Amino acid sequence: MRAKRMPRAVRERQMLDAAVRTFGQRGYRAASMDDIAELAGVSKPLVYLYLNSKEDLFTAVIRREARALTEAIRAGVGPAGLPADRQLWNGLRAFFTHTARHPDGWSVLHLQARTHGEPFAAEIAALREEIVAFVTQLIAAAAREAHRDPDLPEREVAGLAEALVGAAESLADWAGATEGVTARQAAATLMNFAWAGLGDLMADRPWTPPEEEAGPAPAEPAAQTG
Amino acid sequence: MRAKRMPRAVRERQMLDAAVRTFGQRGYRAASMDDIAELAGVSKPLVYLYLNSKEDLFTAVIRREARALTEAIRAGVGPAGLPADRQLWNGLRAFFTHTARHPDGWSVLHLQARTHGEPFAAEIAALREEIVAFVTQLIAAAAREAHRDPDLPEREVAGLAEALVGAAESLADWAGATEGVTARQAAATLMNFAWAGLGDLMADRPWTPPEEEAGPAPAEPAAQTG
Amino acid sequence: MRAKRMPRAVRERQMLDAAVRTFGQRGYRAASMDDIAELAGVSKPLVYLYLNSKEDLFTAVIRREARALTEAIRAGVGPAGLPADRQLWNGLRAFFTHTARHPDGWSVLHLQARTHGEPFAAEIAALREEIVAFVTQLIAAAAREAHRDPDLPEREVAGLAEALVGAAESLADWAGATEGVTARQAAATLMNFAWAGLGDLMADRPWTPPEEEAGPAPAEPAAQTG
Amino acid sequence: MRAKRMPRAVRERQMLDAAVRTFGQRGYRAASMDDIAELAGVSKPLVYLYLNSKEDLFTAVIRREARALTEAIRAGVGPAGLPADRQLWNGLRAFFTHTARHPDGWSVLHLQARTHGEPFAAEIAALREEIVAFVTQLIAAAAREAHRDPDLPEREVAGLAEALVGAAESLADWAGATEGVTARQAAATLMNFAWAGLGDLMADRPWTPPEEEAGPAPAEPAAQTG
DNA sequence: GATGAATGAGTATTCATTCAT
DNA sequence: GATGAATGAATACTCATTCAT
C-alpha cells in the first residue's frame, strides 16, 4: 500500500533514510534499487525521478551522513576559546555518540564509501580532510598553549592527526561491537592514549578529564531514522 | 589460445596474484571472475576447477595476504627478549614496509574484506584479533617493565590496543597515499604518538628511537607480483 | 524490440504456454529460459519477474496442466449416479481426447515431470494419486453393483487401479504416435481389456459400449495455444 | 587411488555400471561425465577413449540394459509349446523380478531414455516394439487356442498389447515404490486384470495361476552391480 | 595405455534503468 | 506526479570435450 501524496522534500528524506539503511547493511553493490524503493515505500521510477541514479543516490547519502557527522562534532566541540584538550575531549564524545546512534550512517562513511572507488572515495576524502584539518589545528593550538619551541614539522603534525583520527575510527568500530562501552569511555580511552601517551600511562600519569558540565551529553534529536 | 601447461601449484599462485590485484583495485563485487581469469592468463573454468567459487577464491586471497602480513610483522619484531617499545618500533616498521609494498593486499585486508559481510569479516576479525592480542601483550609487558602499579583495567588495555592498531591502519593508508612518506617515518610518528603522547610532545619530550641496527629495514624477498 | 504492454495475467499465460511447449518438446534441462522467453515474445528478465525461477516456472506448468487434465476428466465422467463402467468409459474418452489435444502438456506430465526429481515428482505423484483414487473408487463401486462377496483385498484393488491407469497412459502415448487412432477407439480398446479381460475377449464376449449420447465427444474449448 | 591395468572389457563394464547408476539416479542431463568417471574409478579421458561421447555412452547403457531385460524375459517365458496364459505368467514374473533387481536400469529404460529425444527414444521404441510383438503374438496364440472366430482386428490386438505392456510398466513402478509387493504378486494382479478382466473379477471368477514348477523363480546371476 | 591440464560454449539469474500510460 | 511493464547487459558457474605428456 503506497503512501499518498507527500511533499517532495519528505519523500526524498524517506528515500535517503531507506538508502542509508540498505547501503549501510548490505553494501553499495549488494543493495539493489528495488530494495531501497521498497523500503522507502515508493515505486522505483520515483526514486530515479528524484535521485537520478544509484551513483547519485549513494553520493547524496554520503553527503547527508557526512554533514550530519561533522555538524554533530562541531556542535559538541563548543566555543573556540576552550583549551585544546577540552575541545578534543568534547569533540570525541560527540563523535562516539553520533556513530553509536547512527551505525548505518557510520558504516556507509567508514566502510562502504571507501571501498567502491570514485566518485565516492573523493567524498570521503573531503570529509576526512575536514576532520583531520580540525584536529591538526587543535594540535597546533595545543603547541601554542604549551609555548612549544621549536614548532613540530608540518608533516609530523599531519601524521599525528591522521593517527588520532584513525584511532578514533577504530574505537568507534570497537565501541559499536563491544557490549557496554559508552561513548564517554571510548573518548576517555582515546584522550589518555593521545594526550598522555602510553609512556605516561605506564608511569601512572594519565590525562585527567575536566569536571563535567551540568547537562547530559550534547543533545541529538533522535536515534537512527527508518 | 591455450595457456601453456603448468603444474597446478604454479597456476594457483598466478590466479591468487591476479585475484589480489583485481579484488584490491576493484573490490569484491566489482571484480568479475572473467577479469581475474584474464589477468591470470587462463580460462575461467580453470579458476573454478582450482579455486572453487568466487567466495572461496576471495577467502583464499584473504588468508594468503593475512598470513603474509602477520609473518612480515613477526619477522620484523625480533626476539621476545627485547624491551616492549623496541618490539613495537620494529613491528611497526615491518608493518608499514609490508603495506607499502603490497598495496593491493593491504586494500583487500583493510577495505574489501571488511565490507562484504560473512564469511570474510570473520577472517579479518581473526587477523585483527591476532594483531591486537600482540599489541595488548606488548602494553602489558611495558607495564611490567615500568613496575606500574596498579594494573590498568583489562578493558582499558583492550581499548588502547584498538586505538593503536587503528592509528597504524590509518597511517598505512596515509603513507600509501602521500608521496615521500617512508615506512620509517610513519613508524616514528606513531611511536611518538603512542609512546610519548601528545602531551609530552608538546613539552618537547619525544620518544627516542633506539640506535639503528647496521643493515636496512627487515628484508622482504620481492614486491607485489603481477 | 520492446514487446507491447500487456496486463500481467495475459503475459503470464503466454509465458506458461511457451513453457509447456518448450518443456514438452525439449525436456526440463534442455529447455533454456532463453528459448522460453523468445517463444513467449518477451525478454528473459520478465519471465523471471513473473515466474521467479526455472523451477517455479516448471512447477507452475505442471500444476496448470495437471489441473486441466483432471478437470477435463471430471467433466467427462458425468454425474456420480451412473454405473461404474459407464463412468469409466466416459472418463477414458475425456482422457484420451485431452491428451491428444495437448500433446506437450501430456509430455510434461507423463515424461518430463517424472524424470527430474523433486519437487516435480511430488506434483506428479499427487496428480496420479488423485486419478488412481478415482479409479479405485470406481472399482469398488463396480464390486458393490455386482454384489461381489467377499471384497477384493485393498492392496489388490490398488494394484488393479495402477494397472488400469498405466494401461491408459500407455494407450495415450500409442494413440498419439499412431496415425488414425481416435480417442474413442483407444477408450473402447481399454474398456474391453479392462472390463471384459482377454479371456472373455477370446471367447468373443466383449464389453459392450453403452448407446452413445446425441452430441459429439465432450466439448473442449480449443486446442493447444501457441 | 586409480585401479591398476585391467583388460579393456573389464574397464568398459565398470564404466557402464557406473553410468547406469548415475544416469538412473540423476537423469541424463544431470549426470556429468565427471561423476561417471569418478564412480567408475577411472580418468575422464579414458571414458572418452572407450565410449566416445556422452551420447554414445548413454546409448550403450540403454542397449545393455535393454538386452538384459529382454533376455531375462525370454529366459523366464519358457518353451514355445506352453499355453499362452502360462507363457505370459512366466514372462511377467521374470519382468517384475528383473525390474525389481535392477532399479537403475529400469529407470534408465522406462524414464530417462524416453525423455531426452533422439537418438535414445528410437532405442526404447525398438525395445518396446520387441516386447509388444511378443505380447501380440501371445494374444494371437490365445485366440488360436480358443478357436476364436472371427479374428480380432490387427489394430485392436496391437492396442491390447500396448495396454498390457503399459499396465506392466506401471505395476513395475508401483511394486518398486510399495514396500512388500513381490514380483509374484504384481504378476498375479496383472494376470487377473488382463486375463479375467474386471468384469469377471467382480463376478468372483478370477484367473487361476497354474501350479508352480519345482525350482525357485527364474534364476538371475546377481542383483544390480556397482 | 592413461592422465593432468585446459577450454569453448552455454545456462540460470540479477540489476540499473526506461517508457507508456 | 506516479507507476506497472519491460529490457540490455552482465555475472557466477557448469559441462562435454580435447591435448600434451
From TrEMBL, chains A, B, C, D:
Disordered: annotated span: 202-226
Biological process annotations from GO: negative regulation of DNA-templated transcription
Biased composition (Low complexity): 215-226
DNA-binding region(s) in UniProt: 32-51
Keyword list, A-Z: DNA-binding, Transcription, Transcription regulation
SUPFAM superfamilies for the chain: Homeodomain-like, Tetracyclin repressor-like, C-terminal domain
HTH tetR-type domain sequence ranges: 9-69
GO molecular function: DNA-binding transcription factor activity; transcription cis-regulatory region binding
InterPro entries to which the protein is assigned, alphabetical: DesT_TetR_C, Homeodomain-like_sf, HTH-type_TetR-like_transc_reg, HTH_TetR, Tet_transcr_reg_TetR-rel_C_sf
Superkingdom of source: Bacteria
Record-linked PANTHER family: HTH-TYPE TRANSCRIPTIONAL REGULATOR RUTR, POSSIBLE TRANSCRIPTIONAL REGULATORY PROTEIN (PROBABLY TETR-FAMILY)
The protein, known as: TetR family transcriptional regulator
Organismal lineage: Bacteria, Bacillati, Actinomycetota, Actinomycetes, Kitasatosporales
